[in-house]
Amino acid sequence: MNVRRRLIPTAALAAVTALGAATLAGCSGDAAGAGNTATFDVVASFYPMTFLAERIGGKHVHVTTLTSPGQEPHDLELSTRQIASLEESDAVLYLKNLQPSVDKAVDQSPVDTKIDAAALTTLEHHGNEVGGHAAEHDDHEGGEEAGKDPHIWLDPVRYAEVAEGVGKAFEKADPKHAADYRKNTAALVKQLNALNTEFRDGLAHTKSKVFITTHAAFGYLAERYGLTEEAINGLDPESEPSAARVRDLEKTAAADGVSTVFYETLVSDKTAKTIASDAGLKTDVLDPVEGITDHSRGRDYFAVQRANLKALQQALGAE
Questions:
Q1: pLDDT at res. 144
Q2: Are 59 and 81 in contact (CB under 8 A)?
Q3: What is the spatial distance between Cα 233 and Cα 282, in angstroms, rounded to a whole number?
Q4: CA–CA separation, 242 vs 258, rounded Å?
Q5: Does the pLDDT of residue 128 top 70, yes or no?
Q6: Are the C-beta atoms of 155 and 224 separated by less than 8 Å?
Q7: How far apart are CA 61 and CA 57, in angstroms?
């Protein structure tokens, strides 16, 4: 399958997620919650990791999230209190190379159980997008991971693989509750498999296979379902795509029947709306599910992903 995509390199974008299951009431801790509770204390770096920790850990896990709702996770800088919380936890769940400040804190922490979500599935190397936000991340050190896309959670199949790995890590670190972790993991993986089926069937027959988005986060999703992502050059709200890139996108839109330019909830929609206006296209939200806010189209991962599916179906002309 030939899938064109322009993705933010993983080297610069390591996503570190401290992940913990909810308390008995089912609520995760705030961005600076403390460790040393009576439960298994897990620190999660950002929402996709928090969601896994809560669902897999259930009542046995107390979750503290480092990235607040509405905060752009790539730009996270940890406070002294957050670093202390991480060091006092029983486990940290993160996505390496997405959040450099988290990577550094994890490396320096004495936590026994360090779970890197990126190591639990396969990451792929993608061509680097030049300029804007992508260029910023190119400057980060990433070793062999440089140039790889970290947005694994947007592909339900890869996310399920990560869930299985997290479940096994919880079992090993907290064997007293291993049976419950296995049960919760199996239930979550079943739901993710069902979501994969919804996407596969819902996008199997569309008039177009190409979509334009400001944030090059959907390469794995596009590849999984036979689509092509074209990302605007530049993610930083203050940056602008080059004139050549705009012309290229306009030609792509005309040639491939593109109707919509997608933007996300945590980043300015200015660039998307400008390009859409110039090209006579519509705009809509395609959410990378990096955080849940009052502006999200749903209250959890599954609800937002189903909203994404509907948006893609409408934009691509699902039959």
A1: 52
A2: no
A3: 18
A4: 20
A5: no
A6: yes
A7: 5
CB 127 within 8 A of CB 42: no
- Write the DSSP assignment of 54-104 as a string of letters: HHHHGGGEEEEESSPTTS-GGG----HHHHHHHHTSSEEEE-TBB-HHHHH
Instruction: Name 7's Cβ contacts closer than 8 Å, sequence gap at least 6.
Output: 126, 127, 129, 149, 151, 216, 217, 219, 229, 231
Task: Say how far apart CA 59 and CA 8 lie, in whole Å.
Answer: 36
Q: Are strands 91-94 and 40-44 parallel, antiparallel or unpaired?
A: parallel
Centre a 10 Å sphere on the Cβ of residue 306 and count the other Cβ atoms it contains. Answer: 16
Angle (nearest 5°) at CA 307 between 258 and 198: 90
The whole-model pTM stands at 0.83
Tokens of 35: 């460790």
pLDDT in tens, 203-249: 999 999 999 998 788 999 999 999 999 988 543 434 567 788 888 88
Q: Residue 254 contacts by C-beta under 8 Å, 6 or more apart in sequence?
A: none
